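A.,

Following up on our hallway conversation. C-alpha cells first:
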C-alpha cells in the first residue's frame, strides 16, 4: 500500500497494482511514533516505526513507515499520547 496526505485525509492506493484508491478521513493521532522492530514489517528498512490514527468514524488505523519518513507520514498531525 502506498499513501499520501491531502489535508486531513490519508489517500491510500491498495491492491496488487495499487489501482484501488481509498480515502481515510483522520481526526487525530492517538499513539506517538514508536519503533516497530526490523522484522515486523518488510520493505521499511532496518528501523521501521508506527503510530495510530483515529478515523472520522471512530475506528483506529495503524500506520507503519521507515523511520526517516516518520515526520512526513504523520502528515498534518502531531503524534502524541492521549
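Then the amino acids I'd put at each of the 82 positions:
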Amino acid at each position: 500500500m502506498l499513501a499520501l496526505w491531502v489535508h486531513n485525509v490519508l489517500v491510500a492506493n491498495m491492491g496488487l497494482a495499487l489501482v484501488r484508491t481509498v480515502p481515510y478521513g483522520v481526526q487525530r493521532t492517538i499513539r506517538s511514533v514508536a519503533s516497530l522492530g526490523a522484522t515486523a514489517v518488510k520493505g521499511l528498512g532496518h528501523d521501521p516505526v508506527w503510530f495510530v490514527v483515529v478515523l472520522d468514524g471512530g475506528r483506529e488505523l495503524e500506520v507503519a513507515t521507515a523511520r526517516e519518513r516518520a515526520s512526513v507520514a504523520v502528515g498534518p498531525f502531531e503524534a502524541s499520547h492521549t
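The longest helix spans residues 70-73. Curious whether your intuition agrees with the design.

B.
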